[in-house]
Amino acid sequence: TVSTTVVLGGQEFDGESAEVKATGVTSEEAATLKYLPKLTSVHLTDPQMTVEELIAMKAEMADISFTWEVTVANTVLQSDAREVEITGTYVDVAALKTALSYLPDLEMVFLNDCGVDNDAMAALREEMRSEYKVVWTVMCGDIMTRTDATSFMPIREKVYYFFDEDAANLKYCEDLVAVD
Fold first, then answer.
1. Residues 59, 72: Cα–Cα separation, whole Å
2. What is the CA radius of gyration of the chain?
3. CA 168 → CA 37, 116, 149, distances in Å?
């Protein structure tokens, strides 16, 4: 019998392999997956491929489970994620945009306490508006609120004196329909 072995991300997989889990796979290596006839699932971690190459490969291998994950700000993001939340970790906006580009089904990203100022977040939201919704938290006086909040009621937070200067960051809350 003829034995087939392919190398993916430094790991060897033989022709009997049904499942592949590999890290750092290049597009050249991924092209050899076709030599694994019993393959039922592929999961790639931090692939060294473009998102277009990954999506094309997933379409070509439609009869198997084909997923990948990328990491940004110490957070692992799955290729089939519709929503992403990153909390309490500094985020480099350029690295974030690159990582999120690998999530073709992404609808919303929520960033909380990630070290990015409100104006930079608003610029990111505007830039990515047609791709996915960008949500973050803002401080209004002593009250933290999400930018996708539909109502804002300081009394609900037991804040009885709310001043004009406390309201400045409400301008980032585009979904507000009620302020009381």
1. 25
2. 22
3. 60, 17, 15
- What's the CA dihedral at 111, 117, 119, 122 to 10 degrees? 0
Q: Is the pLDDT of residue 30 over 70?
A: yes
Give the angle subtended at the CA of 30 by the CAs of 91 and 102, to the nearest 5°: 25
Confidence of residue 82 (pLDDT cuts 50, 70, 90): very high
Amino acid of residue 170: L
pTM (2 d.p.)? 0.82
In this structure, which amino acid lies at residue 116?
A: V
Residue type, 103: L
pLDDT in tens, 145-166: 899 988 776 666 665 666 677 7
